[in-house]
Amino acid sequence: MEVKMLKRIELHNHSLESDGRMSVDELASWLTSNGISAFSLTDHNTVSGFPLLREYWEKNPVFEYLTGYELTSWYGHILCQNIREYIPWDDLDRENGDLFLDRVHAQGGLAGMAHPKSFPHPVSNGLNFEFCIHDWTKVDFIEIINNSHPAYPDNAEGIRYWEEALLQGSGAGIAPVSGMDLHAPVDMSRYNRTWMELDCQLETAPLSEQLTYAVKKNRTIVSNGPVLLCERDGDSLSLHIDLKTDERVRDLPADTPFLLSLRSPSASFCRRLQGRSRLSLSSCGIRTEEPIVLKLYPENALPVENALPVCIRASVLPGKSQSIR
Description:
Strand content: 25-35%
Order of helices and strands: EHEHEEHEEHEEHEEEEEEEE
Strand order of the largest sheet: 1-8-9-16-15-12-13
Low-confidence stretches: none
Largest sheet: 7 strands, antiparallel
Number of helices: 5
Mean pLDDT: 93
Shape: globular
Helix content: 10-25%
């Protein structure tokens, strides 16, 4: 399996510029002191924190950051990454969500749904994604796990929402991510993390370029410990469970068993997996040209339909992934 670089990134954070409880400086300081050296600032409906974050970074250049914001509307929340300036949305309604996605892309940015399956009206207006998307190729990523929202039903349904979009073809290429949705200091020991699986030549590239590559090539991994690596070569699927990258699982034996679930548009397959393995896709009933959702579960998580994965990612053929703008 080709050597890749894994890099953690946090894509959903708020400061006092919107409804967070930390100033921009305090937020950046808290993230870096907790081992998070690559992150995005995504305050609600404002980019006022951009110059503040830049000023803090100039004094403390020990981290990498992205500029973004979280569109917060009655019809859903959209995370915008790699943007330069505020993007207007006053003319949006439920039927034209594509218009806002076009505006994000016009700035060279990435756009994705935040917590798409949270409690809707009348519990909380806007948290559930209700924009009508006419062209799903304009959606770059979906926040399948939001760490500030409950596992059930919110995140379980968020995973299913992304999975169905990917496998039904409407969302082919949409990358999965997680988000802390950080508003105040919290214990992150049980939080899911987003990892970017990057080619080694991108190690010194700007963070914005790294994220664009990982999202467009569908090389983002959402994990709560083990990180599942995979490579496809025709009918062959090479797999490796990485237990070294995340410090929370480094003490586990390298051959710790997990349950692996594979799902494509035509088949579902489940087997025990330890360390490294190579599978024939056809023996699993999966066609070589199909996108695949891969999920890891604890060995005793049966039936898997009732458990939340400890790692989830997709395997999409190069022709099916999104082109890098």
